[in-house]
């Protein structure tokens, strides 16, 4: 049996002075509540008090593209990971658990197995069935229901990400149930804003139904989006989220926007139409944020569904999204020139191109009052990704032009592990500043609390 060990000084520096200081700083925030202002956990898990996570395969493997993409990269067919017998899926995972050594997924998986489920041995072929049985028994227990774990994880607020066409019925059920957990929606209009989205016309029909406004032209489209934002705010939403291939922004005339929209309704919009319309709608979303107060997030730079074979067989979000080189300074110029100094706008930027940290993003955030930088995202939500972020962003932008941490995950049980890693990485970075006499320990005490939850609460108005 291969026992796991979770050293209390994990992720801290090997230098004794830095490690000792990091330990003290981390101790100050280790037990603070979790603020999760952006993620992809399904609100249905909390709408029904009897809901469960299902089988171990449904919890740890099937919905987690971090896990399945690693297994697929080693030649393991996705058919057997997504559609097979759940015990067999778990067995394949255990037999190949060594693939996750040294990766963020390996850190999260071992942490949640140990801290959430009390599993203190590494998954492998020899113990696969026994671990499956033990986990299955726990997942069937009321103590491991989504609501009970939400309380156990000490989550203060959890924000989901919901389409502009979502009825928000699950959020309504949560709020009407009498349960005290705070689950808030987040407005994501990509499926109706990005004209090249699959079944865009069908999404427009659903937008008409959800908003009660017959979307037949650009003007009614804008009215429907504004109505839906009002609906989301009424359910407690404080932010919107936008994904785009690039952060390109431009402003179209209403007539030009309607011309493109009419072509899209007839199925005749081309790639240039889609790019210009998305760029224009980013401007419009900034304008709407100024008017209704929703914080605006922008996640550009991912070429979605790179593997056509996988996309055709299994659909989106199966681990085949690949980062692109991304330019921000010129692309955001129209939006920032018009709205970047407006005190009513908060625009939180993310990147999958780390080369932009010191060259573009930190200088931009260090100037425009509306702009804040989101934490290391997706492939860089890792111990080394966080270290690079602190090293390249903070000297120019400072921590107060950043938005703290969000876990951005579908994997609910990994949330404590992700926030713990961020708090440890932040403590280690601050400890390095203290031991080199760049900041005092009193400054570090205040900064670690801000990085843990304060900055996120302020940036997202929570």
The separation of the N and C termini measures 45 Å
Can you give the mean pLDDT? 96
What is the count of DSSP helices, taking H or I runs of 4+ residues? 21
Fraction of residues in H or I helices: 40-55%
Total domains, how many? 2
Q: In the CATH hierarchy, what is the class of the largest domain?
A: Alpha Beta
* CATH fold description of the largest domain: TIM Barrel
Number of strands: 11
Broad shape: globular
Spatially, the strands of the biggest sheet line up as 6-7-10-11
**From the helix content, strand content and strand pairing, which structural class follows?**
alpha/beta
Strand residue percentage = 5-15%
Largest sheet: 4 strands, parallel
Note the quaternary state here. single chain
Q: Tell me the Rg in angstroms.
A: 22 Å
Instruction: Assign the CATH superfamily of the largest domain.
Output: Metal-dependent hydrolases
CATH architecture of the largest domain: Alpha-Beta Barrel
Low-pLDDT segments: none
Features:
462 residues; alpha/beta; globular; three-stranded parallel β-sheet; 21 helices; four-stranded parallel β-sheet; 2 domains
Characterization of this structure:
By secondary structure, the chain is α/β, with parallel strands linked by helices. It folds into two domains: 16-51 and 146-459, TIM Barrel, CATH 3.20.20.140; 52-144, uronate isomerase, domain 2, chain A, CATH 1.10.2020. It is 50% helix and 8% strand. It contains 21 helices and eleven strands. It has helices at 16-29, 44-47, 56-60, 65-73, 78-82, 86-95, 104-115, 128-139, 146-152, 169-176, 190-193, 200-211, 218-234, 254-265, 271-292, 308-314, 333-339, 356-365, 383-397, 415-435, 441-459; strands at 34-36, 155-159, 162-163, 183-184, 187-188, 239-244, 295-300, 302-303, 322-323, 347-349, 371-373. It has a four-stranded parallel sheet, covered by helices on one side. A three-stranded parallel sheet has the order 1-2-4. Helix 18 (356-365) links the parallel strand 10 (347-349) and strand 11 (371-373). Helix 14 packs across helix 15 (271-292). The longest helix has 22 residues, at 271-292. The model has no long low-confidence stretch (mean pLDDT 96).
């Amino acid at each position: 049996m291969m026992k796991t060990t979770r050293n209390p000084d994990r992720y801290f520096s090997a230098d004794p002075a830095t490690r000792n200081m990091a330990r003290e700083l981390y101790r100050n925030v280790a037990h603070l509540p979790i603020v999760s202002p952006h993620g992809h956990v399904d609100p249905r898990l909390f709408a029904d008090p009897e809901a469960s996570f299902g089988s171990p395969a449904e919890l740890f493997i099937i919905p987690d593209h971090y896990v399945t993409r690693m297994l697929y990269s080693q030649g393991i067919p996705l058919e057997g990971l997504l559609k097979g017998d759940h015990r067999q899926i778990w067995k394949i995972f255990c037999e190949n658990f060594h693939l996750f050594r040294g990766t963020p997924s390996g850190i999260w998986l071992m942490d949640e197995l140990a801290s959430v489920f009390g599993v203190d041995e590494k998954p492998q072929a020899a113990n696969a069935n026994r671990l499956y049985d033990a986990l299955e028994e726990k997942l069937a227990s009321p103590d491991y229901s989504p609501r009970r774990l939400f309380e156990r994880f000490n989550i203060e607020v959890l924000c989901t990400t919901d389409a502009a066409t979502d009825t928000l019925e699950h959020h309504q059920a949560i709020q009407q149930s009498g349960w005290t957990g705070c689950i808030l929606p987040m407005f994501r209009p990509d499926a109706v804003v990005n004209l090249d989205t699959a079944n865009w016309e069908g999404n427009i029909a659903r937008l008409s139904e959800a908003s009660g406004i017959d979307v037949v032209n650009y003007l009614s489209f804008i009215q429907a989006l504004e109505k839906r934002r009002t609906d989301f705010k009424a359910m407690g939403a404080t932010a919107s989220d936008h994904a785009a291939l690039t952060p390109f922004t431009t402003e179209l005339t209403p007539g030009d926007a309607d011309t493109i929209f009419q072509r899209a309704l007839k199925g005749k919009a081309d790639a240039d139409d889609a790019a210009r319309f998305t760029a224009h709608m980013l401007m419009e979303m900034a304008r709407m944020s100024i008017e209704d107060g929703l914080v605006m997030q922008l996640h550009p730079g991912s070429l979605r569904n790179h593997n056509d074979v996988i996309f055709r067989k299994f659909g989106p979000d199966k681990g085949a999204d690949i980062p692109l080189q991304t330019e921000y300074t010129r692309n955001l110029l129209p939006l920032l020139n018009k709205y970047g100094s407006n005190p009513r706008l908060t625009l939180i930027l993310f990147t999958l191109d780390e080369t932009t940290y010191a060259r573009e993003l930190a200088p931009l955030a260090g100037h425009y009052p509306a702009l804040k930088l989101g934490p290391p995202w997706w492939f860089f939500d890792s111990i080394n990704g966080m270290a690079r972020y602190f090293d390249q962003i903070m000297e120019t932008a400072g921590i107060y032009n950043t938005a703290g941490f969000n876990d951005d995950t579908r994997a609910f049980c990994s949330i404590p592990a992700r926030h713990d890693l961020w708090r440890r990485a932040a403590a280690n970075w601050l400890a390095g500043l203290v031991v080199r006499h760049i900041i005092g320990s009193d400054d570090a005490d205040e900064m670690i609390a801000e990085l843990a939850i304060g900055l996120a609460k302020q940036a997202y108005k929570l």
